[in-house]
Amino acid sequence: MGLFGQAKDMYQLQKKAKQIKKDLANLHIEAEFEGVTVIINGEQEVMEVRISEEMMKPENKMKLEKALLTAFNKAVKKSQEIAAERMRDVMGDLGLPGMAGGTDAAA
Prior knowledge:
With 107 residues, the protein is of the alpha+beta class. It has a single domain (3-93), classed as Nucleoid-associated protein YbaB-like domain (Ybab, Chain: A, 2-Layer Sandwich), CATH 3.30.1310. It has 2 helices and 3 strands. It has helices spanning 3-26, 61-93; strands at 28-33, 36-41, 46-51. The longest helix has 33 residues, at 61-93. The chain starts with a helix and ends in a 14-residue tail after the last helix.
């Protein structure tokens, strides 16, 4: 592939990556654990946190802390998986070697 072809591929990659970034910003990902719900967008910005009344009781402090941690981690992991899948699709569409259908280290 010549220099022109490589430049064209890079331009297409940048264009698609920008569109994916825009799409991810508008995507809401929800994760729940033991009465705690966390909603983040595809860029891993926290959009909303909901905590059940039961979890707000003082005697549930440690349980609430664990539930918050778990719910946030689940939401972030989901968003990372979605973003990786979308980028893998773009790389495969461009015919970049080793990118389409690659192995997942976090599987």
